[in-house]
Amino acid sequence: MRSFHTALSCLALVSAISASPVPGDVWVVDASGAGDFLDIQAAVDAASDDDTLLIMGGTYGGFRIANKELALASDSPQTPRVNGLVTLAGLAKGGGLSLSGLHLRAGFKVNNCKGTVLFTDCTFLEPGVTTSTSGKPSQNPGMHQVLGSNDVVFSGSTLIGRDGTKVWYCGDVYDGAHGENGLWVSDSTVSLYDCFVEGGEGGDSADGGCGLVTCFSANPSWGGHGVCAVSNGLVYMDGTQTLGGLRGDHVDCDNSWGTQDGQAVHNDGTSSVLTGNDPYLHLNGPLVVRETDPMTVTITGPQGAKSYMVWSATPAWRYLGLDLGILHLKSNQLNFVYLGKVPASGTLQTSITAPGLPPGEDSLRAYMQPFALYSGSRLLGNVRSVAVIDPAL
């Protein structure tokens, strides 16, 4: 777990230090056969550090990325669906790995990543239900796991744990499977911006007759936790809603119904969970932009806030106190783009010029955060990833 320090050096709006962009090749993954690869795993295996994988609409199998700095982004009106487990492992310190606009339907595991892993506008929801009755939600990680990792970020994403179901035992007795956690954080630092996280509901259960026993006790179910932080986990939330799942209904004949609804956030006592201060500042924009196209961005924040987009080609992690939050950009490689003042509607939309590609390169990725000066204070909002690609692609 990271140690929180008192406020580090201020984030000041001074002349920008130009970041060296991170260039790479572009690969198109299209299940219809119209791209370079049919499957995401094949593209990952062929890609080199700093490459961009454009994922077209379709259904794909699971994949594993081991210590590669890649950008995977949806570039299609139809959301790409991944039906197998996604494993991200071993990303080295200082590295960046981003997944944007994907629907992961069979769970994920981020394991031992010391660099930055960023999920932008992703959905994590598995079809079907869990049938396991072993392990309460505080003991059973579920399908969405972050383990031993230094900087994992979810931005504009939805994470929902699987519901439990009925598990027949004998006669008219059936147990209830526990709901799963929306997100399990163990020995890791995780940031959640503008996310919705919900634990799964527990399955129904019923005591009843089983053989010669007229009142045989079934195992009732627990609801899953929204976020479950264990083993020195550190969770920072800003603009995020968390909900626990409901426990399952239970037909009881021996007054032994001792289960509970899941908690919005469960802390095992070793972890830290912090929430960013209001007012909230939110940046929205494209996941992929062609170099010559205008890049439309939207800032949501308090009226009159003098707003900027700050971007860097390199991610990092720096805690600036609860009044600001976390800077996810490398502080000596910042670029500042003035966007304007937030109007009375609370939403500012404007078009800016996308970062230019280096000569001869097909793509670069940038990490972006909004920054604003407001009523004598400073605001720092969510982080997003954007892939800038050659307009010919």
Which secondary structure elements does this structure contain, and how are they paired or packed?
Elements: E1 22-24, E2 26-29, H1 40-46, E3 52-55, E4 59-60, E5 63-66, E6 71-74, E7 81-82, E8 86-89, E9 96-100, E10 103-104, E11 108-111, E12 116-120, E13 123-125, E14 144-147, E15 151-155, E16 158-160, E17 166-170, E18 173-176, E19 183-186, E20 189-193, E21 196-198, E22 205-206, E23 208-210, E24 213-216, E25 227-230, E26 234-238, E27 241-243, E28 250-251, E29 265-267, E30 272-275, E31 282-284, E32 288-290, E33 294-300, E34 306-312, E35 315-319, E36 326-329, E37 335-341, E38 347-353, E39 363-374, E40 377-380, E41 384-389
Parallel strand pairs: 2-3, 3-6, 4-7, 5-8, 6-9, 7-10, 8-11, 9-12, 10-13, 11-14, 12-15, 13-16, 14-19, 15-20, 16-21, 19-25, 20-26, 21-27, 22-28, 25-29, 26-30, 32-41
Antiparallel strand pairs: 1-39, 17-18, 23-24, 31-33, 33-38, 34-37, 34-39, 35-36, 39-40, 39-41
